[in-house]
Amino acid sequence: MQVKSAIFVKSAEKASQCPPQTLPEFAFIGRSNVGKSSLINYVANQKGLAKVSGTPGKTRLINYFLINGGWHLVDLPGYGYAKASKSVKQGFSDIITAYLEARDELTCLFVLIDSRLEPQKVDLDFITLLGTHGIPFALVFTKTDKIGVEVLKDNVSQYANTLLQSWEELPPMFYTSSSKRKGGDELLAYIDECIELVNTNK
Length: 202
Ligand code: GTP
Ligand code: MG
Hints:
By secondary structure, the chain is α/β, with parallel strands linked by helices. The protein has a single domain, classed as 3-Layer(aba) Sandwich (Rossmann fold), CATH 3.40.50.300. It has helices spanning about 35-45, 85-100, 120-135, 150-165, 185-200, and strands at about 5-10, 25-30, 60-65, 70-75, 105-115, 135-140, 175. A 7-stranded mixed beta sheet has the order 1-3-4-2-5-6-7, sandwiched between helices. The relative contact order is 0.17. Bound molecules: guanosine-5'-triphosphate and magnesium ion.
């Protein structure tokens, strides 16, 4: 899939303010600072579409983008930002929970994982939560430009082994670098496949 148009639709403070559910929806989620907004800009091929910052906790709203007039790409607030006050952290999880419960059109939730780190409890807990709620997801390992191939392989296989302790099969996995513009084509091809599947099942 080629992205021909990417338009900012709206920022929602809560799930009830999200756009009507008429289009397939794909969302990026993950720890604060993992690279969600950067990946949106890279995949949508538009610098500055989603706000990027060196300060974790930048994205506090649910941001909707319309891609090729046919599907929504959603930038969600980060979870597990250690420096956020308790009430803000709580706010994040409430907004995310309400979002996940409300959006029937959510076709795949991409859980972004910092490829530099060994499996983190906060990510594993979140993935487990998705499993118990039957939410379709895929894993996206970000910032792969910051590490060597061997470290990446090692961290990914640690993830795979940890997940296989409680899952029968692994979710789809992607490897990206927004700064080196890598992995976006694979992500878009997968989104394309998902949209086709949605259309054939209608
Ligand atoms: P919040 O909105 O705070 O939850 O953060 P986010 O997940 O949207 O992360 P964001 O895209 O704002 O990126 C955080 C920082 O990581 C920024 O300084 C980015 O420039 C940097 N960054 C993001 N993706 C990459 C990448 O692929 N490679 C490198 N080297 N840096 C990246
Ligand atoms: Mg962001």
